[in-house]
Design a protein that fits this description.
It is built from five helices and seven strands, in the order H-H-E-E-E-H-H-E-H-E-E-E. It is an alpha+beta fold. Helix 1 packs across helix 2.
Length: about 210
C-alpha cells in the first residue's frame, strides 16, 4: 500500500483505494434504475451512470479510509464545475473521474463508450477535454484524471487507454500511469476492468 506517514496522499494510494472501494460496492450487487423508463438493470456497479457510481464509491471510501472522511468532497453537478473530487483539507488533489464503458447492460455496444474518453470537443466533457480544463483551471493543488473502465474483447479497454494517453500527452503534461485491477465483478457483462490515474501538470502546449 502506497502512502506517507506525514499525511500526504499519493496518486498510487488513491487509485488502489478507489479500486478497492469500487469492488466493495459491487459485492453488494447494487441495482441501477433507468430514470426515464423505470427499467431495473442487472446487479453490479457496471450499469450505474458515472455520477451515481462515483457517489457510491466515495461513500465507501469514507468508511474504508476514515482518515479521508473529511477530505472527500464530491462536487460534480455544480454550475461552475471544476472537478469531480476535491481530496484533502487543505486540498491536496483536484481529480476528474471518467468512465469507459464500451457495452450496455445487455452486452450491446454503447455508442458513447469511447466518446466519453477520447472526444476532442469540450461540449462532450470527455476525459481528454477535462485534462485540458484542469490544466488551465488555476486550481493550486495537484491535479489528476482518473478513468475506471470495463473490459470488452471487441473494444479492449487497454486500447482506449492507450489512445487516451497518446492524445492527452499532445495537449497536457501527463504524468506516469497508475493502475489497479477490477474484478471479478458481479455483472455478467461488466465483469472485469481497471482503474487508471495520471497526474496532470500545469503546462499546456499551445
Amino acid at each position: 500500500m502506497a502512502g506517507n506517514d506525514d499525511g500526504i496522499i499519493t496518486l498510487e494510494e488513491i487509485i488502489e483505494q478507489f479500486a478497492t472501494a469500487m469492488r466493495n460496492v459491487d459485492r453488494r450487487a447494487p441495482r441501477a434504475v433507468n430514470p426515464l423508463t423505470g427499467h431495473v438493470y442487472q446487479p453490479g456497479i457496471g450499469p450505474h451512470p458515472e455520477d451515481r457510481a462515483v457517489d457510491l464509491i466515495l461513500l465507501e471510501l469514507a468508511v474504508q479510509r476514515p482518515h479521508w472522511r473529511w477530505r472527500i468532497r464530491a462536487c460534480h453537478g455544480r454550475m461552475n464545475h471544476l472537478c469531480d473530487w476535491l481530496l484533502g483539507d487543505p486540498v491536496q488533489w483536484a481529480i476528474e473521474i471518467k468512465m469507459a464503458r464500451p457495452n450496455k447492460d445487455n452486452g450491446k455496444p454503447h455508442d458513447t463508450g469511447v466518446t466519453g474518453i477520447l472526444s476532442p470537443y469540450p461540449a462532450d466533457r470527455s476525459a481528454l477535454s477535462e485534462c485540458v480544463n484542469l490544466a488551465r483551471s488555476g486550481i493550486t493543488s495537484r491535479l489528476a484524471i482518473v478513468i475506471y473502465g470495463f473490459d470488452d474483447l471487441r473494444r479492449p479497454l487497454t486500447h482506449i487507454i492507450s489512445a487516451f494517453e497518446t492524445l492527452a500527452k499532445a495537449q497536457v503534461n501527463l504524468g506516469v500511469q497508475r493502475c489497479a485491477p477490477l474484478g471479478p465483478l458481479v455483472h455478467p457483462v461488466h465483469k472485469s476492468g481497471a482503474v487508471y490515474g495520471w497526474e496532470i501538470y500545469r503546462r499546456v502546449d499551445p
